[in-house]
Task: inverse folding
């Protein structure tokens, strides 16, 4: 496979909501490329008909009764918010 | 008072014989931290006021006779890794992004220890968001190995291992996603257990890779470890991946008897890439186990060499999703910008360190459109093969044994900007996280002055068998000594 291009690195950074400087794009790009090349070693294995494992224990659809219980206090939760107003978290403008 | 050198059981007996008070133990921890932690760097912060107030409450219970006389952890100081939330005590994951985060609830494990009467004295340094094998990725300052402060303590629970080795607290909690309890335990010459996936609640553990993370204890001895594990293990309805499986009496497993135990030693774990010194110590340990009556045979885990690649794809993919929540909006440090998107970008780019960015980038790439099947799904299929390797061996063997890490602790700065070399330190610990099986690291001697760790791996939910083997070995060779740590100025 070809080396990962700077455009691809920029695209991935964008998806990950990371702003990278030019030198970071070059440096991380090279390191990412090495790690991805190493990951291609997995292609040596034939995994046709092998189920993927996303979870090691045989636990699925854990259900419980829907009972009302006290939740965290709103004022407590807002203490960690960088900016809040009238019981809500404030963010910068979303639309231009 | 100096370093903690007694076992948990001895401290417990001293407390109940009125030879010592809880306050004295908490002060011993705080004083020892002041004495040596400027050099070691294991703690990010202590909570002197609350710890002493709690100690006074517990001393009162001892005087009133209301203290649970059977609870060994009662009154003992503990350090908690900084990715486990503690109500009212800052929890930063050693990240600048969470520098100001003060949790509004306790993790289940913190509640359990509190209910048992243990006293949290502070939060332990780590690699940022538990990503690293050397503790050099802490957003604040590195941890140093108490055996030689030019060397790393291992990671990511480096603070948790170094604090025990330096005698700052008698026990700590760490977390292990790819070796983060066992590798630092090996490097610092202490005992560290990664329980079976689902054995200990992850509620309140800041998620790195949710299908791999487990919380576990780090202690001086196997017996101490079993006492702590007894309190951590169990089902928690607040963690839907926690298993509803009965918790056995771990202390009852510490018989010292290994007769008829069948031990498999994977040839892949003593091959190329493992240093001669480590191999020698592990072979000596296997001889000891044979002398104790165990049957030791060479076996194979044929997919071992693929574990590292599978792990880094899966763990980074999960991390890229889990760490999306850190955007400077609801908690953490926000870097103000004119609009919402730039606020996300600035908060994350300035808040995360390089290794965290690398892993988020790798994970985002592996999950991105067009690459998902080739990387993420492939890695999950390989995970199945690795898990099957273990299942096959456990049909015939009670435990699998090898080294914990391929070398002893390396020097600070040696691998810091070379991700592939750094990741290779985890090659012997990663497969157990992928398979979800429990594994312990116990000290098994030294190579050129630095500790070597022996890794004992068991079947799902068979921590008791792992403890049985570890204890018998430890009884035969003696509990490992602690290093001389001298105080020093803050680095």
Result:
């Amino acid at each position: 496979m070809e080396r990962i291009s700077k455009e691809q690195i920029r695209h991935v950074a964008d998806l990950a909501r990371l702003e990278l400087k030019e030198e970071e794009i070059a440096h991380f790009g090279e390191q990412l490329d090495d790690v991805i090349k190493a990951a291609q070693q997995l292609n040596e294995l034939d995994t046709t008909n092998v189920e993927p494992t996303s979870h090691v224990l045989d636990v699925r659809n854990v259900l419980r009764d829907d009972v009302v219980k006290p939740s965290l206090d709103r004022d407590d939760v807002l203490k960690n918010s960088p900016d809040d107003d009238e019981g809500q978290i404030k963010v910068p403008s979303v639309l231009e | 008072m100096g370093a903690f050198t007694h076992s948990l059981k001895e401290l417990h007996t001293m407390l109940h014989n009125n030879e010592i008070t809880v306050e004295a133990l908490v002060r011993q921890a705080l004083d020892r931290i002041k004495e040596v932690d400027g050099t070691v760097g294991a703690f990010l912060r202590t909570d002197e006021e609350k710890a002493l107030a709690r100690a006074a409450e517990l001393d009162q219970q001892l005087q009133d006779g209301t203290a649970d006389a059977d609870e060994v952890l009662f009154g003992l100081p503990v350090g908690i890794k900084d990715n486990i939330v503690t109500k009212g005590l800052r929890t930063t994951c050693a990240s600048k992004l969470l520098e100001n985060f003060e949790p509004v609830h306790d993790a289940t494990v913190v509640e359990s220890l509190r209910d048992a009467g243990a006293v949290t004295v502070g939060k332990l340094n780590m690699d940022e968001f538990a990503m690293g094998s050397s503790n050099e990725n802490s957003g604040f300052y590195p941890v140093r190995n108490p055996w030689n402060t030019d060397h790393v303590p291992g990671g990511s629970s480096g603070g948790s291992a170094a604090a025990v080795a330096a005698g700052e607290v008698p026990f700590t909690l760490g977390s292990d996603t790819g070796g983060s309890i066992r590798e630092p335990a090996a490097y610092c010459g202490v005992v560290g257990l990664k329980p079976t996936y689902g054995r200990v609640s992850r509620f309140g553990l800041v998620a790195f890779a949710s299908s791999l993370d487990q919380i576990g204890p780090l202690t001086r001895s196997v017996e101490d470890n079993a006492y702590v594990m007894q309190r951590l293990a169990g089902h928690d309805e607040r963690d839907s991946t926690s298993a509803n499986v009965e918790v056995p009496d771990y202390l009852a497993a510490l018989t010292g008897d290994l007769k008829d135990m069948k031990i498999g030693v994977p040839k892949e774990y003593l091959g190329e890439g493992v240093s001669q010194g480590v191999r020698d110590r592990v072979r000596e340990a296997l001889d000891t186990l044979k002398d104790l009556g165990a049957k030791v045979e060479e076996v194979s885990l044929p997919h071992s060499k693929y574990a590292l690649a599978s792990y880094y794809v899966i763990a980074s993919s999960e991390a890229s999703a889990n760490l999306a929540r850190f955007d400077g909006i609801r908690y953490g440090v926000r870097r103000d910008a004119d609009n919402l998107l730039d606020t996300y970008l600035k908060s994350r780019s300035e808040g995360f360190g390089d290794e965290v960015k690398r892993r988020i980038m790798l994970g985002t790439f592996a999950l991105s459109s067009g690459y998902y099947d080739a990387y993420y799904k492939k890695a999950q299929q390989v995970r199945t093969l690795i898990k099957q390797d273990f299942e096959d061996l456990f049909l015939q063997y009670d435990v699998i044994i090898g080294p914990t890490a391929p070398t002893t602790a390396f020097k600070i700065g040696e691998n810091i900007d070379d991700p592939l070399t750094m990741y290779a330190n985890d090659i012997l610990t990663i497969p157990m996280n992928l398979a979800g099986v429990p594994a312990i690291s116990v000290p098994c001697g030294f190579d050129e002055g630095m500790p070597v760790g022996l890794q004992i791996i068991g079947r799902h939910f068979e921590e008791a068998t792992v403890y049985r083997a570890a204890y018998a070995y430890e009884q035969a060779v003696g509990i490992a000594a602690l290093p001389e740590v001298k105080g020093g100025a803050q680095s």
Chain A touches chain B through 53 residues (CB under 8 Å). The helical segments of chain A are 6-15, 22-39, 74-78. The longest strand of chain A covers residues 84-85. The radius of gyration of chain A is 23 Å.
